[in-house]
Design brief:
The structure is a single chain. By secondary structure, the protein is mainly alpha-helical. Helix content is about 80%, strand content about 0%. The protein contains 6 helices and no strands. The model is unreliable at about 1-30 (pLDDT under 50).
Length: about 200
């Protein structure tokens, strides 16, 4: 092989290696971007799921409180119980939303226990009062309100279990992909969220 052919062959080989190298880097970059895009999509989806589960739980609790207020209105109309007693209960019910835990404060077990005690006490007292009403046996409004409150109270545990399940998945995902997620989110938003189960243990 003469020198001219040798350098031509060398040039072609060098050019081929350069093209291969560029393609490899390009493929590597695409893979990296694809992974970040995929992680971002999963992260945002889990975030939405956690928020939606929380909102459904709170909405159901708000509806229970609304029904409790409606029940007290029915008891007032009946005139069987003292107005002072009902007003005291009404104030306690309205206070529930103010003392309810949030997704930020629920790491404190005292906040949850205080709310649960206040809510449970009111449910017990209101249902007992309604069922002792002389018209309860035939008053469908009273009966339906009592059943709605009782059913909502029983749903609380299920809602908390559902929230814990999706939040645990979220926390595990954060832990497994923290370095990648730092590229798309602030460190403050990458903190693990407290779970009802852990808080109550």
């Amino acid at each position: 092989m003469n020198h001219k052919h040798y350098f031509v062959s060398l040039f072609i080989i060098s050019l081929s290696l350069s093209i291969i190298s560029c393609e490899t880097k390009k493929t590597s970059s695409i893979t990296a971007f694809t992974r970040i895009d995929s992680l971002t999509e999963i992260y945002l989806s889990l975030q939405d799921s956690v928020l939606n589960t929380w909102n459904v739980m709170v909405k159901d609790d708000n509806q229970k409180i609304t029904t409790m207020i409606g029940l007290m209105h029915e008891l007032k109309v009946g005139g069987q119980f003292s107005l002072e007693e009902l007003q005291s209960l009404e104030q306690r019910v309205e206070q529930l939303k103010r003392i309810r835990y949030t997704s930020q404060t629920m790491h404190n077990v005292d906040v949850i226990e205080e709310y649960d005690f206040a809510s449970s006490s009111l449910v017990t007292e209101l249902i007992a009062m309604a069922e002792s009403h002389t018209a309860f046996s035939y008053n469908k409004v009273l009966q339906n309100q009592v059943e709605e409150i009782r059913a909502a109270d029983l749903r609380v545990e299920n809602f908390r279990m559902e929230y814990d399940a999706i939040t645990l998945t979220y926390n595990n995902f954060i832990e497994a992909h923290l370095e990648f997620l730092k590229e798309i989110a602030d460190n403050e938003t990458l903190n693990k969220k407290p779970l009802f189960q852990i808080v109550s243990e």
